Amino acid sequence: MLGLLTPHQIEDVLQKELIGRIGCHADLITYVVPVTYVYDEDCIYAHSAEGTKLEMMRKNPSVCFEVDHMHSMVDWQSVIAWGEYEEIINETERSTAMYKLINKFKPLLTSKTALPVHANLAQNNTPAVIFKIKLNKKTGRFESPE
Questions:
Q1: How many other C-beta atoms lie within 10 A of the C-beta of residue 10?
Q2: Superfamily of domain 2-143
Q3: How many CB atoms lie within 10 A of CB 110?
Q4: Cα 4–Cα 25–Cα 122 angle in degrees, nearest 5
Q5: Cβ distance 44 to 20 under 8 Å?
Q6: Is residue 96 exposed (0-12), middle (13-18) or buried (19+ Cβ within 10 Å)?
Q7: Are 47 and 102 in contact (CB under 8 A)?
Q8: Are residues 53 and 40 in contact, defined by beta-carbon separation less than 8 angstroms?
Q9: Per-domain residue ranges of the chain
Q10: Short-list 80, 78, 79, CA closest to 144
Q11: The pTM is what?
């Protein structure tokens, strides 16, 4: 059976998943890239080193975000959302966003040799860019066996 997710189911998928995909477009190029994220109060929070993704979102802050949960090829949920990219510059808000990211991913660091999430946020002594995507539209679909 195919169907539409309810608003509650959409929120549930966004809350539970770890990796989503940002779709951005600038200079006649479309770019889709996976990111680890945290969802809170209609915002996607993530961090990144400087690169193509950030350059494109700065040029065109209107982005798309996709996340899915696959049980099998006939049992899945998918959410697509649209929103506006915004860099977080305020130190208090940056700290809060990083705290949310660390708390979500820290339990997944099962290896004794794994670095803490916050240990390698900078490359070449350049601080990571912390950003959010303020979602303004969300939709979702599912398939389930019946």
A1: 21
A2: Electron Transport, Fmn-binding Protein; Chain A (2.30.110.10)
A3: 6
A4: 100
A5: yes
A6: middle
A7: no
A8: no
A9: 2-143
A10: 78
A11: 0.85
